[in-house]
Amino acid sequence: MQQDKILKFFRQKPPLWGGLVGLFFLSVVSAAAQPVAEKPKLVVGIMVDGLQQEHINSFWNYFEQDGLKAVIANGSSFHQIQYNIVSAGNAADVATFVTGSTPAYHGITGNSYFNKTRKQEESVLFDVSQVGIGTSHSYSAHRLLASTIVDELMLSTAGNSKSYAVAIDPETAIMMGGHTAKSVTWIDDVFLSWVTTGYYADGLSSYADQMNVDKTFARIAGAKWSPLFPTNSYVWNNKTLVRPFEYVPAVRKKGSSQTLLRNTPAANTLVTELAMKLIKEEQLGSDDYTDMLMLQYTVRTPNEQFSSVKSIEKEDMYLRLDKEVKRLLETISQEAGLDNTLVVVFSNKSGAHTPAELGENKIPAGYFNATRSVALLNTYLMAIYGQERWVEGYFGKNIFLDRQKIEAKKLNLNEVQQLAADFMVEFEGIRSAYTVNQIRNQPASGDADAVNIRNSYHKNSGGDVVISLLPGWLEVDNLNNPIGETTSTNSDIPVYFYGWKIPKHKSNKSYNITDVSPTLAAILGIPFPNACIGNPIEEVLK
Q1: pLDDT bucket at 32, cuts 50 / 70 / 90
Q2: Which of 43, 58, 184, 456 is the most core-located residue (most Cβ within 10 A)?
Q3: Which secondary-structure segment (H or E) carries 194?
């Protein structure tokens, strides 16, 4: 054998020289003989929009054995995972998950941001250099300033891995796909089709295109949604007036070009159908290079007013989601094998109770619309500094002052910022107001509210003053659409690891969402994302 010849040669040399060099070559030969560490052949990440552990507990006995129950009962279950950021939409939440970092590093502070140059709100995905495929939207991940777990996998295998993202909304899809996914796909709920952006190498996958062309998409979107079971069999039936419901996902929302599709079980079915096609046709998990499939499901319902379960529609969403997860797991088992696949289920940041629900129970809460308070702030600054427009804009709890005007008038910027913060904190629903300098100088530990704001502030999109709301309060825009989610200082989400060599384990320990991505990287034996601040969860790695 070649190894024997090498060892024999160095044994014939002088003792000292031969011993040292021989020792070196022995270590090389020994290392080369070691088996390559085992790792999953396929990783499937599943984000469920609105998923809560309390809901899972309520419906546990109604789930099938081979769906959500299999994932949770037979894998590693974590119920106290914290989003250590201020939630401002799925883009920020998912970016934090896939990078193992916070907006202060990865740059995604929300679904939208205030463009300081154009002085207007715009999508965080907007990229004038890109073209939409099946859509007029020019989107990309160019504002995501850090690598993701998908990126690191693709880099480590020199692009030989296959990676896909299939989602309901573009923000989740693009953050899941990162910069290097082969193809990223999301639902167009106006024209009822799969769409994507030219930013990704493969554009719209042929399987998504096929679903558009052969009307599979339209057929699923056009099917009526009514109760899966008799209404008197639902958990919620004894707590409210039970009424049959019926929605057609393809029906337009009142006063909008959008349809109900994204908040119905049809959206989940569409995701499953495309995911199964990708697994089968692309033969994911079939070679020596780990593949990754990132998916988004939802448990949101049309016209939802409560985060807790107060309707059979919500319960029905969970029961139907369970069936979709079962179908997905069956396909994984048949094609790649569950023993070769690591499944990770997680949620975005969502509140246990909405302000409406809290208010019904006499718990202080409310909805905060900044339009009036920011207008009054400008009037206040005019009374002090003169009849000028001192507030340039506002978005997502960030107040933007006209710095050019302040400089031209030779005013003290820090003083103006502090006056604005002191004025804003007097409004109902506002807990605190911080100037940019206070945020930058905030230590990494201390007041949870201030730390989360520090973690979520980025120089490219941050304002001069940032406000925070009291627990129970939710910010809404002028159309009463929520901007972000809960303001509670304690909002846990569940994360489940299942399949491959994951131990059966239920943890009561608390972790940050930024710890999940490095855990996946450790399992895959690849570098952590380049802005990662989290640590691997040792309970999963045992």
Answers
A1: very low
A2: 184
A3: strand 193-197
- Residue in 321, 292, 133 with CA at minimum distance from that of residue 212: 133
Helix (H, G, I), strand (E, B), or coil: what is residue 107? coil
402: pLDDT strictly greater than 70: yes
In angstroms, the CA 49 to CA 136 distance is 25
Tell whether the model's pLDDT for residue 362 goes beyond 90: no
Cα–Cα distances (Å) from 462 to 102, 111, 271, in that order, read 14, 14, 34
pLDDT tier, 352 (very low <50, low <70, confident <90, very high otherwise): low
pLDDT score at 6: 38
Instruction: List the domain range (segments joined by +) for residue 526.
Output: 42-291+301-325+339-352+491-541
Residue with tokens 């107060």: 310
pLDDT greater at residue 26 or residue 258:
258
pLDDT tens digits along 222-240: 999 999 998 888 886 655 5
Residues 401 and 464: their CA atoms lie apart, in Å, by: 6
Exposed, middle or buried by CB within 10 Å (0-12, 13-18, 19+), for 380? Answer: middle
**152-173 pLDDT per residue, tens:** 999 999 999 999 999 999 999 9
User: CA Rg, the chain, in Å?
Assistant: 26
- Distance between CA atoms of 247 and 241, rounded to whole angstroms? 18
For residue 321, pLDDT beyond 70: yes
Q: Once rounded to an integer, what is the mean pLDDT over residues 301-313?
A: 76
Q: From CA 474, how far away is CA 459, in angstroms rounded?
A: 24
Predicted confidence at residue 386, as pLDDT, reads 95
249 shares its domain with 312: yes
- How far apart CA 201 and CA 8 sit, in angstroms, is 52
> Would 435 be classed as within a structural domain?
yes
Nearest to 182 by CA among 202, 207, 166, 197: 202
Considering the domain architecture, whether residues 320 and 450 belong to the same structural domain is answered as no
Query: Are both 242 and 384 inside the same structural domain?
Result: no
Give the SS3 label for residue 5: helix
Give the side-chain half-sphere CA count within 13 A for 141: 30
Element holding 19 (H helix, E strand): helix 15-33
Alpha-carbon distance 63 to 185, whole Å?
A: 29
From residue 494, how far is each of 80, 226, 255 by CA, in Å? 6, 28, 36
Residues 445 and 537 in one domain: no
Q: Say if residue 403 is in the same domain as residue 321.
A: no
Indicate the range of 36-45, 330-339, 410-419, 516-525 predicted with least confidence: 36-45
Q: Which residues pair with 201 in a beta bridge?
A: none
Same domain assignment for residues 395 and 535:
no
| Same domain as 29, residue 63 | no
pLDDT attached to residue 59: 92
Check whether residue 48 and residue 161 sit in a common domain. Answer: yes
Interatomic CA distance for residues 291 and 285, integer angstroms: 6
Rounded Cα–Cα distance for residues 274 and 218 (Å): 14
3-class SS shares of the chain: helix, strand, coil, % to 5: 40, 20, 40
Q: Using the 3D structure, point to which of 475, 502, 531 is the last residue of a domain.
A: 475
55: number of Cβ within 10 Å: 20
